[in-house]
Amino acid sequence: MKRYCLVPALLALAGGGALAQEGPGGPPAEPPAATAQPAAAEPSQGGYEVRLKSLREQVDDLKGRVFDSKTRLMILGEQILNNLIAEARAVIIHENDASSMLTLEEVLYFLDNQKIYYQSNREGTLDTQREFSIFDGSISPGNHVLSVELVYRGNGKVFTYLSGYVFRVKSAFNFFAAKGYETRVRSVGYEKGGLTTPFEERPSVRFELQHTKIAADAGGEGTGAPQGPQRQ
Fold it and tell me: Can you give the pTM of this predicted structure?
């Protein structure tokens, strides 16, 4: 009867397994433990659109300010040139007589097709002024044409639905500037009609005219009495 020695065989098998795991040259290096890398933060689409919209609004606001400044400089230059002619004078006043249902957004005036005044309500300038000067200077004697453009917006603070209304009112007025006289023209933005008048038909402009003699006599005092206002 043959006897088998199991211990050497088991040791041989155990040794072979160990060698197979270790491999040549000693025990294998353990692979580095994987470390979680934080994902790069990506800007949300909503935040990007908000920033882009804000930048666009800032650019539009700057463009508007530049336009306003250029317009005022151009008007100032034209007034300086007009003041070189001292034979007749003109004073043009704007009055805002519209109710609180309308907000004045823009005012634009032309005298003989030349722009003499522009003001927007970008900074609330027109909200605080019910009456202001448009022109005060010398003009050539003769016939002249005053043109006005007003932009009104419905005041949503009074009634919410009014904010959807925008009105552009245009009107022109012919007047004669006499030599030695000051011609005063008052342009009044108001609401015509009554409660039964449709809201979109109410914004309008009327004009009042007055002549005052400014020529001085030998005593140094002005002659002539002011003429009563004329309306159109």
Answer: 0.58
β-sheet bridge partners, residue 96: 189
Neighbouring C-alpha atoms within 13 Å toward the C-beta of 161:
2
pLDDT of residue 79: 60
CA-nearest of 142, 137, 149, 145 to 94 is 149
Would you tell me how many other CB atoms lie within 10 Å of the CB of residue 107? 23
Does an H or E element contain 134, and which? strand 131-139
Nearest to 116 by CA among 135, 129, 92, 94: 135
Q: 190-225, pLDDT tens digit by residue? A: 999 888 889 889 999 999 999 999 855 434 444 444
CA R_g for the chain: 42
Other CB atoms closer than 10 Å to residue 132's CB: what's the count?
Answer: 15
- What DSSP assignment string belongs to 190-212? EE-S-TTS-GGG-EEEEEEEEEE
Contacts of 148 (CB under 8 A, 6+ apart): 94, 107, 108, 109, 110, 169, 170, 171, 172, 173, 187, 205
Given a contact cutoff of 8 angstroms between Cβ atoms, the answer to whether 165 and 153 are in contact is yes
Give yes or no for a contact between 105 and 151, defined as CB atoms under 8 angstroms apart. yes
